[in-house]
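User: quick one - fold this with copper (II) ion bound?
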Amino acid sequence: MSARSIAVVLLAGAATLLGDRGRVVAHDVADLEFVPKLDRFALAAAYRRGGEVERANLEAAMLPIPGADEGAVQLLRDLDGDGDPDEIHFHLEVIEVQEEVYPGEFVTFWVFAPTGTSMSSPARLPSPLLRVEEGDVVEITLYNTHYLPHTIHLHGTSQPNNMDGVPHMTQDPVAPGRAFTYRFVAGPPGTYWYHCHVQDHVHPIMGLAGMFVIEPDRPYNHFAHLIPGAGRITSMSKATREQYQNEYSLVYMDIDDRLNRIPAAYTEPREIEKRMHRDYDSTQRKPNIFLLNGRSFPFTLRDTPIVVKPDQLTKLRVLNVGARAVYLHTHGHHPTLTDLDGYPVPKDARITRDTFDVGPAQRVDLALRTGSDGFYAAGPGVWLMHDHAQPAASNKGINPGGDHTAIVYEEFMGEDGLPKQAGGHAGHEQYFDPNYYKGRIPVFDPKIFGTTIENYEKGWPVTPPSGGAFDYPVRQDAGALPRLDLIDTERHRPVATACPERPRGTRRILVKAGRQYAREGEVFAFEPRELRVGRCEEVEIVLENTDEIRHDLMIPGLNPIFALNVVGPKVASGRFVTPDEDVTLFLHCHIPAHDKVGMVGSLIVGRGGAPKTVPQTAAPTEPKSFQGVGVVIATVPRSGRLIVNHEEIRGLMAAMEMSFPVAPASLLNGLNAGDRIHFTLDATSVVTSIQVIESAPSR
Ligand SMILES: [Cu+2]
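Assistant: Sure. Structure tokens for the protein plus copper (II) ion:
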């Protein structure tokens, strides 16, 4: 069944039982049909009677996730009448993403992501934090939009055996194009995680893993149920707020980028499968990139600083998705262990220490006390918090790097979102230069050796001294892999404008989409692949998606762009007007990697032919920048991205919703959703300046 066809939104659906409270004791699945659906008054009541925090949490619970389908998280009925939804349905798909994990290093991952919309997906590393309440009836539908089979295993929670997600033991792996729904009642409360269990020596560390938190049951317990990525949890649940002032989800991962390079470098799905699962020997892996919440230093400092005030208690939920132990050391602070693997540690065993070991798959919940008592905390400042296993202090062997962050007292946070330090921000500046991690910048100031950067390597003899040639590990350069974001931008340039006149004809074309139309070596395909139309015609595309997942047929060269997003199995249609010129336009499914595994085709207008409008990058008079105007949908400071609904950007792309990287990320400071902005993009589609034309109307 399609997620969209259920379409229940919290505003209408999160109601409470106004009577008959004794009837449903706990949240028993069997009782579901007896629970009356109720009105929105209860929600309004919850809103009125709550304080500022309650209202903020209610808003967080209902806030749309930028780029996600509005039905991606469904908050359904209130089964026990305590003022919050108890049926939670997550809709997740599998997306191949490329993340810049530290300056200049683009790495390919696979992640679970809330179902995306046409042209957009909120996919990011790690897979999203999912949160429910104890006793909630949880459904997680996995739509396998990927080209390999996957499942979801809920690690540590109590679910029926047939919902355990182990391929060939409790279920068949979910094939590409298919969907599977996991159903269970959540409990007991604690920090858990979920991950793919197919080829589990490889798939979870490719990114198919995220934190799963079960919050203790409380009345009117509202909070965001899905948080893309991980990091600070601003909408804390009631039980957590009873004890803590701050909360963070910290997901650690170590990767061997030789594995992640495979799906980036190869396009044939069979070759990717063979190289990843047959050639690549995971017992010989050498982790060389160390991630906290999907990033390495210095991005970790900007994305996941642990921001605190004195005399507070901060809850740290730590998960290790990686394949090696993490030894989490907090400078100046001694946190106390409260929970292991989601289960509370008995009071007498709650040790306080400065370095906590977290093995693969383990969760460690810590209570971080701040202040200046000299026992738990040594006073305000910027205190490093890092994995003390030495290799994790580097990015491919270059220090400083890895999964470092810092405990930052609020007054030490700079306006640019980076912690201030004694030497000012300049001290960190060089680490944001990609050349630093390519090893092109000397470690220390060359003045120490009385030289300059230019003369640095001219200072020693070329021939090694006798006995001087010896074997030591040398950093491997990943070389230039294809950058998906750049390819994406290039592919989405308009090259032919829809006929501005009244269309001279109309035409209806049936296009089928799905697994079953794939040929040898493909996974998904369209049928037919060549659409023939006349010039200046109105065309109705009737898209029959025979898969159980989403496909998004897009003709990116057409201006305005045409896209038709359908979660199958379902038929939908959309119209556009063809250009008044003989031209062949590329069409594809816009879901990442679908074009790579077969979902491409062409729209042949008239006699067809190469577009006359040469893509701007190939032109000798390539502009150095592009100007855009649009309305901010969201900012994602964590990944330094701006999501904007923009008008046509001349010479670059048609009007659409886009997520652009922003450099420096501090340009995002002070921007609000709804702001109308003017922005400048450089030749690589990075936003380099933003001016607010009109602020969002205040709420
Ligand atoms: Cu598709």
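One thing worth noting: The mean pLDDT is 86.
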